[in-house]
Amino acid sequence: MATVMLSEEEKYFIVSGIEEDFRTDGRSCNDYRAITVQTGVISNTSGSVQVKLAGTNVLIGVKAEISEPLLSKPNLGKVEFFVDCSANASPIFEGRGGDELAFELSAALQNTFSGAIDLEKLCIIPGKACWILYIDALVLECGGNLFDALSIAVKAALHNTRIPTLSIIGEGAEKSIEVSDDPYNSTPIDVSNIPVLVTLNKVGERYIVDATAEEEICSDAQLLVSINQKGNVCSVQKHGSGGINPDLLFEMLKVGRKIGRILNEQLNLVLEKQTAEYV
């Protein structure tokens, strides 16, 4: 996921600093950069958000539409993720490079959130109609740690999403759906069980959180840990070809849980404040 080029000397400088618990921007290995979250930034969507994490900038819009449920899952709604890496964010996003990263990011989001969203509540008429949530993400700038930024943005965008109230008219096979056109006659999505991702990058014999683009180049492996607001680990994904010692893995999970709990708490406070301002 690196977007910059480094010389061997620069890599050595970064790795050596991390070994001493000192990073080039002055942070320690477990320090997170400041995050800004702004909801309701895109009109004509069911929910939207822009998240900035230092040099990383992502935009997400959610569209709720009525669709037919899958034959194998007649009582469930559907969620689809799509990520687009703007060529303006980095030269390597032009052409195939951007497509490959977008696919990797989409797959990570699908794995993280597919089991956390209550799809039963998105069912309208079993076997006939359901809500489908299209979650579209655009990477505007890439300064490292895209997984975490996107996961925070997904949770915030879903919190901002409102599902129109429906009326079911008729009986049996004659049932039809009437959608309220009153924007205030809608229902929010419960995000209490939706986690955020904490990416821990193994660099040398240590690990760091919230890696910059330069630090990601020096990373041997990435551990993506999704944590809900209770501090529970919901999923673990490993990226990269490097191995992780079991003792180090246990320590990374412990730190990931701690940081994930803090991220959830801080995000919830921001979302509650912004929701109150809209009322």
Automatic annotation (TrEMBL):
Domain Exoribonuclease phosphorolytic: 32-164, 193-258
Localisation: Cytoplasm; Nucleus, Nucleolus
Cytoplasm is among the record's keywords: yes
Coiled-coil ranges per UniProt: none
Keyword Cytoplasm listed: yes
UniProt-listed InterPro entries: ExoRNase_PH_dom1, ExoRNase_PH_dom2, ExoRNase_PH_dom2_sf, Exosome_comp_Rrp42_subfam, PNPase/RNase_PH_dom_sf, Ribosomal_Su5_D2-typ_SF
Keyword annotations of the record: Cytoplasm, Exosome
Transmembrane regions listed in the UniProt entry: none
Family: Belongs to the RNase PH family.
Name of the featured protein: Ribosomal RNA-processing protein 42
